[in-house]
Amino acid sequence: MNQHQLETLKKNNEESHDFVKSCFRFALMIILKDPNDTRITISRLCKIAGVSRTAFYRNYHDVEDVLIDEIVTFSMALAGQIKTDVYENWLSLFKLVESKLEDLKAIVNAGFEHKILEVFLSLLPEEGDNRTIQTIWLSLFYTFMVQWVKEGKPKKAEDMARIAFKFTQNIPLVAAE
Asked: How many CB atoms lie within 10 A of CB 114?
């Protein structure tokens, strides 16, 4: 096999791996959204995802890992929305929350909201003044987001951005040097 074929094989394996993981995350959200039965088992995840138990264990250790993977995926999407203007930052974040509202509602209603904050905080730099500032921002965002989700989203993303901006406009985005 030549180098090009090896690279193609590696890329195909990565895409297959990502697809299988997305199937498990999708299956988890189906289970969490079912008000009649939120039992989360590996067998049930595999059946809904249409993927074998072997594939599950190739990608995850337990069901909680699937939830964490879903939250990390959401967190990475949030990170891609970060702007330098405070109001625009809030607006882009809340628009993403609005687009994922049903999934977030399912996670919160299942009692896993604490996992969201745990994942958010685990993705921050390990030390430094900017970690402190980022922790403040993440904690504020988490609080606003969870409250919005729990209230059943009575407001639009624009309304939430205005409210958040009102209370945070004087907080720096990065630590002063």
From this structure: 11
